[in-house]
Write a structure and sequence with these properties.
359 residues; alpha/beta; seven-stranded mixed beta sheet; disordered N terminus
Length: 359
């Protein structure tokens, strides 16, 4: 990382989880499990989908409470293939009959749980497919640009109300951000993954949702800092217990083109782990985890910021170089037997710092 870039970044801390399937946190004194109360304190919590097992309202409710209680300013959440009631077209066509015996859940209640006033006050931002930018109190300015079919919405995050319509010019004219040095982090999020057992948010394996001719393509480098998908890219922590690699080739091609700082996902429980890829050298390395420290600290820890510490495992002891490297995290909490035995990930990462806006 150059000295010029280092003056334009700020360390930001992320707690990353996925595939919780409504699992409650273990009690704080149960040191045999890392996934226990409380979740690590962070700037941002990322949940990469499969919030529930079958998308029932009584499954979503405790997860909203769990995330509301988490000590993070912003909690970014996407759905996964098990969250069948958040994929409305799929649910009406297949999911209601397949999972809920034609009785069905109230989809308006489901959506309200994730986008209503209670969720907003708790800092929860439920995202669909497209590009977002968020703002944090630590100096990070995150506005949100969401693509929903053919409509483009710009939403104001930390300093306004999620769901309100506001333009860039309005944002700055309000004076909301004119006193803040801004750390700007672009996030691309999608709940979709290759079709899996006729569950939600599917696409055909021969369909390319992420590159040149897609409706919401992942932008080229250097426009995206964080990629949040439910499914993994091909060949990266995507192997099942049978040894099959089930990640998406099209997503891998998009990640190579995008080169984000951080790519978080889940979906394949057996793939839990962290991997650091160097695009220039064509190399990759899995990051080791100290199991005893993980259980003690309630998380697996990676520091790839400029403020790295002595004594960290190899791969976590030097700053990540944006454009040359990507840190991949498979954050599935469940193992292959649907037991919540995997740890949350705690990642410290530098994000770009924008110029101060004069009021």
């Amino acid at each position: 990382m150059t000295s010029e870039e280092s003056t334009k970044t700020v360390k930001t801390r992320f707690c990353i989880i996925s595939d919780t399937h409504t699992a409650e946190l273990w009690p704080p004194d149960d040191e045999t499990h890392a996934y226990r109360r409380p979740l690590p304190s962070t700037d941002v919590l990322l949940h990469a989908g499969d919030i529930t097992t079958y998308g029932y309202i009584n499954e979503y409710e405790p997860m909203v409470e769990l995330l509301s209680e988490a000590d993070a300013e912003l909690k970014i959440v996407i759905a996964g293939n098990h969250d069948v009631t958040l994929d409305v077209p799929y649910y009406e066509k297949i999911g209601r009959r397949k999972f809920h015996r034609n009785i069905g859940e109230d989809l308006n209640v489901v959506k309200e749980l994730w986008t209503g006033e209670k969720a907003k006050k708790a800092g929860i931002a439920y995202l669909e497919e497209g590009v977002r930018t968020f703002t944090l109190r630590n100096g990070a300015r995150f506005t949100v640009r969401v693509y929903i079919r053919t409509a483009t919405l710009l939403l104001l995050g930390q300093f306004g109300t999620f769901g309100s319509y506001i333009s860039c010019s309005q944002l700055f004219s309000t004076g909301i951000v004119n006193k803040y040095h801004a750390d700007v982090g672009q996030v691309y999020a999608t709940p979709y993954q290759p079709e899996f057992c006729n569950f939600a948010f599917p696409y055909r394996r021969d369909e390319d949702r992420f590159n040149e001719h897609a409706q919401n393509p992942i932008p080229d480098y250097p426009k995206i800092d964080i990629l949040l998908t439910h499914g993994p890219p091909a060949g990266i922590m995507d192997r099942t217990s049978r040894g099959d690699g089930v990640g998406c080739e099209h997503l891998l091609r998009a990640v190579r083109r995008c080169r984000p700082r951080l790519h978080c996902f889940g979906h394949i429980h057996e793939g839990w782990g962290a991997q650091r890829n160097n695009w220039i050298q064509g190399s990759s390395a899995s990051l080791p985890v100290d199991q005893q420290q993980m259980l003690r600290d309630r998380c697996a820890y990676v520091n790839v910021s400029q403020g790295v510490e002595d004594g960290l495992p190899e791969g976590s002891n030097k700053p990540l170089v944006f454009g040359e490297e990507t840190l991949f995290i498979n954050a599935a909490i469940m193992d292959v037997n649907y037991k919540p035995v995997n740890a949350p990930w705690l990642v410290e990462l530098d994000l770009p710092l924008a110029e101060q806006v004069e009021g």
